[in-house]
Amino acid sequence: MSIWEYANPVRFLALSAKVQPFAWGAAAIGISVGLIWGFFGTPDDFRQGATVKIIYLHVPAAWIAINAWIMMLLASLVWLVRRHHVSALAAKAAAPVGLVMTVIGLFTGAIWGQPMWGTWWAWDPRLTSFLILFLFYLGYIALWEAVEDPDTAADLTSVLCLVGSVFALMSRYAVLFWSQGLHQGASLSMDKQENISNVFWFPLVIAIAGFTLLFLALVLYRTGTEISLRRARALSARMEPRA
Amino acid sequence: MIPDLGKYATEVLSAYGVSLLLLAGLLARTLRRGKSARAALKQIEAETKRHGKV
Amino acid sequence: MTLTLVNVAVARGGVPVLGGVAFTLRAGEAMILRGPNGAGKTTLLRTIAGLQLPLSGTIDGAADRIAYGGHADGLKGMLSVAENLSFWARVYGHSDIEPALATYALGPLRSRLAGTLSAGQKRRAGLARLMVTGRPIWILDEPTVSLDSHAVALFADAVRAHLGMGGMALMATHIDLGIDAHLCDICGWAAAPQELLGASDEAFL
Amino acid sequence: MIALLIRDLRLAMRAGGGFGLGLAFFLIITVLVPFSVGPQSSLLSTIAPGIMWMGALLACLLSLDRLLALDFEDGTLDVLATAPLPLEAALAIKGLAHWITTGLPLVVAAPFLAVLLNMPPQGFVWLVVSLALGTPALSMIGTFGAALTVGIKRGGLLLSLLVLPLYVPTLIFGAEAARRGAAGMAVETPLLLLAGISLACVALLPFAAAAALRMTLR
Fold first, then answer.
1. Relative to the CA of C149, which of A17, A89, C132, D60 has its CA 20 to 30 Å away?
2. What is the pTM of this model?
């Protein structure tokens, strides 16, 4: 049983129908527990005060924003190499989710930055990279909307995703070169003691897991939507009376 | 019930408000689009059945 | 040297329009495709020219031997007729455009800008482009649009000369050119809506 | 290949100022900036390198939507795709023609316009060098964007949306080099990185652009 069997829309939908209830449920539990624990059950940071509670939204959103793009890149590669429609449609389905997560990351970051750094926005490498990522999402989604033929749209957006990823990576290093930042280092690392203490760490990890499951559930459902739209299109194209 | 957020109450609450609102918006849009697409497909499938098998 | 199609299926907008297309065209032969609008003439010609991929089947003897003339002429309005033709000649590795100009009576127009030509004159220049390519297989989509009867005769002479030199021509037209050609009604190959033939969206059916 | 280059250059000259248009746009931006930020020469000389780079970038963007769209409409691209010339080479040539008609005039004109913005004279040479190294990348990225959007009706705005984020690294290193040059600092690092980006773009993007174009024509 190879993984490619799920490239068939029917098999994909069957599997997706089985997985989705668990994904939605676990996502709801994870996000609720992570956010409620974080919001009500953690102390204030001695330096940042209550603003530290924003971390339970900010970090998971940022995590998804980046990984959604990576998932789209992989799905695009699969489409270009193996021509599996489900893969292209999954990339299409993931893009708006990634976009919203990027916006959440930017918004919560700005709200957090105001009391901490004294400014809503600084041209810090991390913030700037996220802004660029936001632009890439916009362009990718706009290209999907603009091309009429769905297979051509899948082709072109995949090429854009590939080339865009290279340029996004280059931008990341360019931005690091261009400005030293205010942003703190990674919030999560293997050596957790170094970054944030256990009190904050557990709810944060749960929130991240919840967001990841939410992303999975959303992408599965949205891919199902795209498959329905393609199937409807294919069926109605064949019903039209021939000239 | 709401913990004492000190002087940062506005920031924290608005961050949660904006984020949850955005998530809810995404969820609502996803579900609405999904429902209408699935309904449209059902209708077309029914029509094709009447016209004969594809 | 032949052009051979075996069991070729083509699609427009993802939906198969023709299936099981099979014929062989030998040196010196011409074929005229007939069929109502939307039957798939343009799609078939574009597929043979290599501009789109067939859904299935094989096309032999087409690679790097085709000169394609579609609905648009591929002329630049801001260049003269001679400049347009020499550009295409050089792209195909030739330089002599005089025979083409002579065949289509374009001599007096050679230094006129293509943008100032009438529709029929433009078409003649577009057809002259086929001659400067030096390619043996001409694929023409409605070549006689906006040509008057005199120009149609020039075109027919050019095709006859091309066939006489061992060339081939495959065209979609409804005009009787007076050329000795196989007539071929492509309706015989029309794909039934139910057939899949490797269509790109068959995974969704 | 030369034939295609000559044809594109000839077209640019005849079609009412392919050479002139980008340059005039560049000039207008340079003239308008002091109106918007005020005439203080100290402020202008600080931001001059950035303005010059921004102007060059926008001038490049201006002519991109005609780069392939006209050839698409009149059927030239169909014929080119069946011609013996590989599509990759054809697109590289088109990018080169775009650079010669848009990028090169900007490089030449930049020092004269920099005078208008009170840029310190020591920075002129680095401004010219950074533009000379960076504008080929801008043209090639633009060609790729044009290939992506050529089949789309009214794709001009979308083209800008797709291309501008791709311009970020080039802009950062190019403007940084010009800025450091104007301030009398060492410019080697950003210049080397800029040259690297340009080389990579010129070497690899024609393939991506040709792939995108084939997908559209199909």
1. C132
2. 0.90
